[in-house]
Write a structure and sequence with these properties.
By secondary structure, this protein is mostly helical. The protein has 2 domains: about 250 residues, Up-down Bundle (Cytochrome Bc1 Complex, Chain C); about 120 residues, Orthogonal Bundle (Helix Hairpins). The protein contains 16 helices and 2 strands. The protein has a two-stranded antiparallel sheet with strand order 1-2. Helix 3 packs across helix 10, helix 4 packs across helix 5 and helix 11 crosses helix 12. The radius of gyration is 24 Å and the shape is globular.
Length: about 425
């Protein structure tokens, strides 16, 4: 939705810079005068929240890397030293560790909003695909970072996840040994994991730039799923959405601060405060909470190779989602049947996270009386996860009857038959 630039340099310095490197013009057109649908709600503020989360992770990560020692004999001790001896090291580590969880919480809400309002549909297919690439890189960075403290969960998590590649026929063993840098998880593994963990966030930042670029070409989607038709459908990004995003960021940071200062270890695992020991296996090896649904999908398949393929397939299916949903209506606000299936999908994702956190043979509360354990619950929910994308969404486009939609974005805000004249400066809802 880009158009002619409205930026006018006011000083000699601005004119000089604009003729040589129009970076101020780029910022003005992208974040100040950018026309934005006037009906965006608070679900659309997570893009700004995620940008702040990424900046926090990069800044704290750079400082922590100055004190971390990527060696199996010293890594655990260096993390303890950061907590105890480095000035405000405890704060930096708590921010970084909990920041990963807050980052994933925001990205999951961001993705669910995109699914609900159909933000992956044309002409925003590439925008969605770039978002999924960012999500993949986040998962890689999170896993690599989980290994760095070199506690029990770090070591055994690295052992379990890297061994998964060994299930691939012919190439599995060479890939695993290449990841290890030897014949088992050791010092070479820790070194390369540290290097990649440091590098990936900058790669994410670059792709975020492409993501924002891809957003600014077709413009924002909106809760109605309607395209912008007239100027009355839009508001300038500043001050309406800068204020809205700013408020949402402040609220999110308050929640973030609660975990950092009052509950810093709530989202971690107690076993990771025990130094890595290759001779002692933890009773239950689990990843961080934001990877638990995929861990449950992995366990749901009895065959190792099948489990690996299903786990990666759960992410791969997101890449082709724009072509799987056959409905001509973007927003599920006007798709009553799809809305119910979406609710069940969210419940299935939460259920998979629960299954991943529990031992597979444990009985499910209430349902355990009929013999249902977490392994079988995970299998049922995995089936629905894939059915939602591969069966339900393609069929709904043919059988579902959408409800009536407003004629324009302006009408969805002001009501039918009302003009913008009476509310020319009214902020978005």
């Amino acid at each position: 939705m880009s158009g002619p630039s409205t930026y006018e340099p006011k000083t000699g310095v601005e004119r000089w810079l604009d003729q040589r490197l129009p970076i101020v013009r780029l910022g003005w057109d992208s974040f100040v005068d950018f026309p934005t649908p006037r009906n965006l709600n608070y679900w659309y503020t997570f893009g700004g929240i995620l940008t702040v989360c990424l900046m926090i992770q990069i800044i704290t990560g750079i400082v922590l890397a100055m004190h971390y020692v990527p060696h199996i004999d010293y890594a655990f001790a260096s993390v303890e030293r950061i907590d105890r001896d480095v000035n405000f090291g405890w704060l930096l580590r708590n921010i970084h560790a909990n920041g990963a969880s807050m980052f994933f919480l925001a990205v999951y809400l961001h993705m669910l909003r995109g699914l609900y309002y159909g933000s992956y549909k044309a002409p925003r297919e590439l925008l969605w695909i770039l978002g999924v690439v960012i999500y993949l890189l986040m998962m890689a960075a999170a896993f690599l970072g989980y290994v760095l403290p070199w506690g029990q969960m770090s070591y055994w998590g690295a052992m379990v996840i890297t061994n998964l590649f060994g299930a691939l026929p012919l190439i599995g063993t060479p890939i695993t040994e290449w990841l290890w840098g030897g014949f088992s998880v050791g010092n070479a593994t820790l070194n390369r994991f540290f290097s990649l963990h440091y590098l990936i966030p900058f790669l994410i930042a670059g792709i975020v730039g492409l993501h924002v670029w891809a957003l600014h070409v077709p413009g924002n989607n909106n809760p109605t799923g309607l395209s912008i038709k007239t100027k009355a459908d839009t508001l300038p990004f500043h001050p309406y959405y800068t204020v809205k995003d700013g408020f949402a960021i402040i609220v999110y940071m308050i929640i973030f601060a609660f975990f950092v200062f009052y509950w810093p270890d709530a989202l971690g695992h107690a076993d990771n405060y025990i130094e890595a020991n290759a001779l002692v296996t933890p009773a239950h090896i689990v990843p961080e909470w934001y990877l638990l649904p995929f861990y449950a999908i992995l366990r749901a398949v009895p065959d190792k190779l099948g489990g690996v393929l299903m786990m990666f397939g759960a992410i791969a299916v997101l890449f082709v989602l724009p072509w799987l949903d056959t409905s001509k209506v973007r927003s599920m606000r006007y798709r009553p049947l799809a809305r119910w299936f979406f609710v069940f999908f969210v419940i299935a994702c939460l259920g998979l996270g629960w299954c991943g956190a529990e031992l597979p043979d444990n009985k499910v509360p209430v349902l355990g009386s009929i013999g249902l354990n977490f392994l079988w619950l995970g299998r049922i929910l995995t089936l629905y996860y894939f059915a939602y994308f591969l069966v339900i969404l393609p069929l709904l486009g043919f059988i579902e009857k959408p409800s009536a939609r407003p004629a324009s974005i302006e009408e969805s805000v002001l009501g039918k038959g009302k003009s913008d004249a009476s509310a020319s400066a009214a902020p978005a809802e």
